[in-house]
Amino acid sequence: MLDRWTMPLIQRPLRRIAQTLLNKHITPDQVTLSAFALGITALPLLAWEQYGLALLVIVLNRLGDGIDGALARLAGRASDAGGFLDIGLDFVFYAAVVLGFALANPGQNALAAALLLFAFIGTGTSFLAFAIAAKHQSIERPHFPNKAFYYLEGLTEGTETVMALVIFCLFPEHFSILAILFSIACLTTTATRLWGGYWTLRRHESANIAAADG
Length: 214
Description:
The chain is mostly helical and about 210 residues long. It has a single domain (about 1-214), classed as CDP-alcohol phosphotransferase transmembrane (TM) domain (Four Helix Bundle (Hemerythrin (Met), subunit A), Up-down Bundle), CATH 1.20.120.1760. Helix content is about 80%, strand content about 0%. The chain is built from eight helices and no strands. It has helices spanning about 5-25, 30-40, 40-45, 50-75, 80-105, 105-135, 160-170, 175-214. The longest helix is centred in the last third of the chain and has 39 residues, at about 175-214. The radius of gyration is 18 Å and the shape is flat. It starts with a helix and ends with a helix. About 35% of the residues are buried.
C-alpha cells in the first residue's frame, strides 16, 4: 500500500550507493547474496533474543535489497535471473525472521509465528502466480517500473513488511499479538490480490480475444 510513495523517495540515495559499488566493479548478484548472508543471521540472533543486533542486520538486509536493483539498472544488467534470485531470497529471509521469533519463545510465539508464515504463503504465492501470468500476457507494471516482476498491489507490500519486522524487534514481548495483527493484514492482501488478479487477467484475456476476432 505504501510502496508507491516510499519507492520514489529512496531511489536517489540508493542510486548514489549503487554508483559507488559500480565504480568498485561489484555486481548486483554479489550484493544480493551478501545482503542475504547478512540478513539470515537474524535467525540465530532472534533465537538468542539479541533483538538489537537482529534489527541491525534486518535493516542492512533491506538496504541491500534496494541497492542490488539500483545497481543492476545502473550497470545495465537487470535480468530475470537476478530478479528471481532477489525475490526468492527475500521470501526465505522473511520466513527466517519469523522462525527466529518462534525459537526465541516457543510457548508464547510459536502459534502466532505459524499463522504469520501461513499468511506469508498467501501473499507470496498470489504475488508470484500473478507475475507469471502477467508476464505471459505482457501486462505492463504501471506503478512499479523498478520491480523485476509485475507488482500486484495490496494492503501489505514491501514497506509494510519491513515496518512490521522492525516493530517486532522493538517490541519482542508483544510479538504474538503484533504477528496476529499483521497476519490478518497479509490475509486481506492475499484475498484482494486473488480477486483483483483474477479479474485483471480475465479482462486482459477478453480484450485479446476481442482484438483477435476484430
